[in-house]
């Protein structure tokens, strides 16, 4: 087990990023690059009757205006969660059929972006429109039969006899990721090879998905994705515009760049779907939670099935012996929703941890003491041990840092000198500790350079820094000349980087590669004395380099899982392994201040303490938690997609009206780590962090608002008008 205490070091790519040296997909310099712009559908559902492109073609500098008739022979690459590669199975512009508002109906390619935008605005279309459902509660939506979730004991019978009970409904809205780097593709077709530059969390899916869509040999498709300017789940698979840009490049014989405008991304990329949660909890006279019932509805698209898993954490946060859950999918006419940071765990924790807080008050217990009294020692679902679980330590450490003992328990009892209402709230969170198969290739050269190529993507979370820490720990190499190659399927097979398994998958396989390199070096040394670095020794022995390859999969996964990795298909595992269960945990303590007249809510301070195994890169880990907490504040108080039920579009599809927190909204955020290696999950002792950082923040804020005002709010985002 890894006992290394890693130092706090700067990000290895920080200097290049602040100097603007780092090149993202849309920055790639190419000669004769053409610029593309899509024309979005103005209806939700129906048929494209006619498209008039004459005016657009007549604009000086326009190279082509493509419609669905120019994409004959192109196929859908399939849905990622259905055995394919795309974020949805519907590929725009393959027919005249339209299934969601905003999908492209034409593609304009021109000499400059300005010309492409001008010409796109001149494309006219007529439609044969059909009725549609835009909202979760729309009468035209298709409500599927409930799917059973986790089920233990006899929850309904025990609930009926519980001493204290809570029965409440909680609502979470549709939300959109809005990464700083918009979805962008630069496609080049040269000498029978297609090269795609795109910021993606899954370059393997792009490589094999493009081959499937365009009928190409995967060996003739190159994908380069060295950096990603934020993805948060939105870029975890093949996007619809990638196929369009690639096809245009093949037809025109020159590179094509397509950067999707932010307003269009609200209708063409995945998002967090709206959901409704009914929670029923029961506790006995001693304050033990004896039963829970969790029933949820979640928005879906018509073509695909994005399954909900709200009960994965809620069945395991506490030692609840009787638990039952269901989830109903509600099909609406939208693009397929997908994974957005803490996709199910954020809304599930808001609902469940709010209900737990309500139950604590109903039972007359302190919310912190109530949670500690119901801590689980083994997994309630399987009965297996946890690989490690320090949730109680997170709660205790966070309470001490926050000063919880000074809290007056009565709602509305704490006020500032100016009359401002003060509330203190707490909530717990969890996220599965997952792993994915990974391959690492390590080469140390006599010329002083080291190259490590492996499965994984840099999507802003600082994974290069964690990899650097692992590769330089135990190897006598020049740290200034280490090259880290990720996001390149031709350098090493690429698995989707998501679900907080990036570091947990990459660092252990790098450590294994380092161990293999140490062993190979000892073979070549053959007892000779070591004088200097590995580079210097190789030069003396006149050997140009040493190279090793290592492979690692999740515990219990068969070797055949590498076949899925090699074909760009998802192959992650967790949280259930044999014979243990693994999660990361977090505790959030929040102070809110509510202005008594306007009811404006501010969050001056938060303390968050995390159990995520060994911390490999302290600086980026703390940054991840801070970012997740900020996002949690936004999700609780700001973020929602305003859907127009008449036309099916997102009304606030820009940063002017899709409100997110700014610096003035954020107070002090104190971050703490348990930093104890997980003894079972992997040899590095690492569990995931990026997702769990957000889980529970919204609930802690809602619980704090209740403590400040005495009003229990069950709908996100919490608005000023809800407090009157």
Describe the biggest sheet? Answer: 7 strands, mixed
Oligomer: single chain
CATH class of the largest domain: Alpha Beta
> Strands of the largest sheet, in order across it?
3-5-1-13-10-11-12
Topology:
Layout: H1 14-19, E1 34-40, E2 46-52, H2 54-57, E3 62-66, E4 97-98, E5 104-110, H3 113-120, E6 124-129, E7 142-143, E8 147-152, H4 155-161, E9 164-172, E10 184-190, E11 193-198, H5 203-214, E12 221-224, H6 240-252, E13 256-259, H7 262-268, E14 275-283, E15 289-301, H8 311-314, E16 322-332, H9 345-362, H10 367-373, H11 391-402, E17 421-432, E18 438-445, E19 450-454, H12 463-472, E20 482-485, H13 502-525, H14 534-540, E21 545-552, H15 561-566, E22 583-594, E23 601-611, H16 618-637, E24 666-673, H17 697-709
Parallel strand pairs: 1-13, 11-12, 15-16, 19-20, 23-24
Antiparallel strand pairs: 1-5, 2-4, 2-6, 3-5, 7-16, 8-16, 9-14, 10-11, 10-13, 14-15, 17-22, 18-19, 18-21, 22-23
Helix pairs in contact: 5-6, 9-17, 12-13, 16-17
Describe the model.
The protein is α+β, with helices and mostly antiparallel strands and 724 residues long. The chain folds into three domains: 25-130 and 180-230 and 235-268, Aldehyde oxidase/xanthine dehydrogenase, a/b hammerhead (Aldehyde Oxidoreductase, domain 3, Alpha-Beta Complex); 149-158 and 272-433 and 578-723, Aldehyde oxidase/xanthine dehydrogenase, molybdopterin binding domain (Aldehyde Oxidoreductase, domain 4); 435-573, Aldehyde oxidase/xanthine dehydrogenase, molybdopterin binding domain (Aldehyde Oxidoreductase, domain 4, 2-Layer Sandwich). 25% of the residues lie in helices and 24% in strands. The chain is built from 17 helices and 24 strands. Strand 11 (193-198), helix 5 (203-214) and strand 12 (221-224) form a beta-alpha-beta unit. Helix 5 crosses helix 6 (240-252), helix 9 (345-362) packs parallel to helix 17 and helix 16 (618-637) packs across helix 17. The longest helix is centred in the C-terminal third of the chain and has 24 residues, at 502-525. The model has no long low-confidence stretch (mean pLDDT 97).
């Amino acid at each position: 087990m890894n006992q290394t205490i890693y130092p706090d070091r700067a990000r290895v790519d920080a200097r290049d990023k602040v100097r603007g040296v780092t090149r993202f997909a849309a920055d790639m310099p190419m000669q004769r690059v053409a610029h593309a712009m899509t024309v979005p559908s103005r209806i939700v559902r129906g048929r494209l009757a006619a498209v008039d492109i004459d005016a657009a073609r007549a604009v000086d500098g326009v190279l082509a205006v493509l419609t669905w008739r120019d994409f004959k022979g192109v196929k859908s690459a399939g849905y990622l969660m259905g055995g394919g590669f795309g974020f949805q199975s519907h590929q725009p512009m393959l027919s005249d059929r339209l299934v969601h508002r905003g999908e492209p109906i034409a593609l304009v390619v021109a000499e400059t972006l300005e010309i492409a935008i001008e010409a796109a605005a001149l494309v006219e279309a007529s439609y044969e429109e059909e009725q549609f459902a835009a909202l979760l509660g729309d009468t035209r939506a298709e409500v599927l039969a409930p799917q059973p979730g986790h089920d233990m004991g006899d929850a309904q019978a025990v609930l009926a006899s519980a001493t204290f009970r809570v029965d409440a409904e909680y609502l979470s809205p549709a939300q959109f990721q809005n990464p700083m780097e918009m979805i962008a593709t630069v496609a080049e077709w040269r000498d029978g090879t297609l090269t795609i530059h795109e910021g993606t969390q899954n370059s393997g899916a792009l490589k094999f998905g493009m081959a499937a869509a365009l009928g190409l040999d995967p060996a003739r498709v190159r994908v380069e994705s060295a950096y990603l300017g934020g993805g948060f789940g939105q870029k975890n698979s093949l996007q619809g515009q990638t196929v369009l840009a690639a096809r245009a490049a093949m037809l025109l014989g020159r590179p094509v760049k397509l950067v999707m405008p932010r307003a269009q991304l609200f209708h063409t990329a995945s998002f967090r779907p709206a959901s409704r949660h009914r929670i029923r909890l029961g506790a006995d006279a001693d304050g033990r939670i004896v039963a829970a019932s969790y029933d949820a509805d979640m928005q879906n698209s018509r073509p695909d099935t994005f399954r909900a898993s709200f009960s994965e954490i809620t069945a395991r946060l506490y030692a609840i012996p009787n638990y039952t859950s269901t989830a109903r999918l509600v099909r609406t006419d939208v693009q397929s929703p997908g994974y957005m940071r803490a996709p199910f765990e954020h809304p599930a924790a808001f609902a469940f941890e709010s209900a737990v807080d309500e139950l604590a008050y109903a039972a007359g217990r302190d919310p912190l003491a109530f949670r500690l009294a119901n801590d689980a020692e083994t997994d309630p679902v399987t009965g297996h041990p946890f690989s490690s679980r320090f949730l109680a330590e997170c709660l205790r450490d966070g309470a001490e840092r926050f000063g919880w003992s000074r809290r007056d328990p009565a709602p509305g009892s704490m006020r500032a000198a100016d009359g401002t209402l003060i509330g203190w709230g707490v909530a717990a969170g969890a996220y599965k500790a997952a792993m994915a198969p990974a391959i690492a290739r390590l080469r140390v050269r006599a010329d002083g350079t080291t190259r490590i190529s492996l499965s994984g993507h840099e999507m802003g979370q600082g994974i290069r820094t964690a990899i650097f820490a692992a590769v330089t720990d135990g190897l006598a190499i020049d740290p200034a000349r280490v090259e880290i190659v990720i996001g390149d399927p031709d350098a090493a097979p690429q698995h989707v980087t998501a679900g907080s398994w990036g570091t947990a998958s990459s660092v252990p396989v790098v450590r294994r590669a380092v161990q293999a390199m140490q062993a190979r070096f000892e073979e070549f040394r053959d007892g000779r004395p070591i004088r200097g670095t590995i580079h210097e020794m190789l030069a003396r022995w006149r050997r140009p380099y040493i190279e090793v390859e290592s492979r690692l999969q999740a515990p219990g996964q068969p070797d055949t899982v590498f076949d899925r990795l090699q074909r760009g298909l998802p192959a992650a595992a967790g949280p259930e392994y044999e014979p243990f269960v693994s999660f990361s945990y977090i505790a959030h303590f929040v102070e809110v201040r509510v202005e008594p007249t306007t009811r404006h809510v501010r969050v001056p301070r938060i303390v968050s303490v995390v159990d995520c195994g060994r911390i490999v890169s302290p600086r980026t880990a703390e940054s991840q938690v801070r970012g997740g907490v900020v996002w949690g504040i936004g999700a609780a108080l700001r973020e929602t997609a305003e859907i127009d039920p008449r036309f099916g579009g997102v009304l606030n599809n820009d940063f002017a009206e899709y409100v997110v927190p700014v610096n003035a909204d954020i107070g002090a955020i104190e971050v703490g780590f348990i930093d104890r290696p997980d003894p079972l999950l992997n040899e590095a002792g690492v569990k995931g962090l990026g997702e769990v950082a957000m889980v529970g923040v919204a609930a802690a804020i809602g619980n704090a608002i209740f403590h400040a005002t005495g009003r229990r709010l069950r709908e996100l985002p919490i608005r000023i008008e809800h407090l009157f």
